[in-house]
């Protein structure tokens, strides 16, 4: 119960600070970058469930993110589905994609899972980029998935109309609400019976299965939970930027996000959020040094892997223990 109380306290403090940020720092750039942080934080918090808690070395998270983004855009563009309905529908579609990937990975372990999930993402990227046949002629030749041009003009959730000059602040609070829900679900999973089952399968799969814990059942569960919120994040990303294209499959973005988990602390509750904040701040600090930006981020990751292999969360726990 002490851990749960601590998690609740940390969550409430972080939520209060985030709610106050637009009041203290109302600049548009800060708000929009913070909204992007919320989107990436949702992805890494949910990826941590699969990678850190489930012990499944999946690299499919950007494919799931793209599935949610494309599903939202296509529902709005082709079928005129209101965005408030399209986002949860995209989450359900992403769950189906995630479970298919989970089924494909059931018989694989370690690097083979990484290779297969990365291959799936690359196949999806190639299919979209090479999609050049006209699916509709509205506004010119439009491929089904938009091809290299992507899909735009699929609508939004109405906040731009309600708040013409402050819509980005409204989007900020929507992103914050989505992140709060995603983190809450993550805490429930990690601290509850599901988390115990996932960790047992990760640490000693033979013993766990001998005690009646079904690897098939729980692997699909963790893929489904993670996929839903990742798809929701993808849908909100599409609405926030008003366009979806093949850049959502970017390999550099995938490495950027996995670095957040490693730096924050793999398998911890608050580590991915810490890592996301540190990497976003470091990325902003090196934005003017474009030639050395990737080198700097790589060096930062190397330092953490060597000096603090358990990430920021592990370092903070050791510091607290040594003081106690």
Quick description:
The chain is an all-alpha fold.
Tell me what you see in this structure.
It is globular, with a radius of gyration of 20 Å. Strands 1-2 form a two-stranded antiparallel sheet. The two termini are 19 Å apart. It has helices at 2-24, 28-53, 61-79, 83-104, 111-129, 159-162, 167-191, 193-203, 205-210, 215-241, 251-264, 271-285, 293-307, 311-323; strands at residues 151-152, 243-244. It is mainly α and 324 residues long. The protein contains 14 helices and 2 strands; from the N terminus they run αααααβαααααβαααα. The protein folds into 2 domains: 29-249, no CATH class; 250-324, no CATH class.
- How many β strands by DSSP? 2
Return the average pLDDT rounded to an integer: 90
Reading the helices and strands in chain order gives HHHHHEHHHHHEHHHH
Q: How many structural domains in the coordinates?
A: 2
Structural class: mainly alpha
**Rounded to an integer, what's the Rg over CA atoms?**
20 Å
Distance between the termini: 19 Å
Q: Which strand-content bin applies to the residues?
A: under 5%
Gross geometry: globular
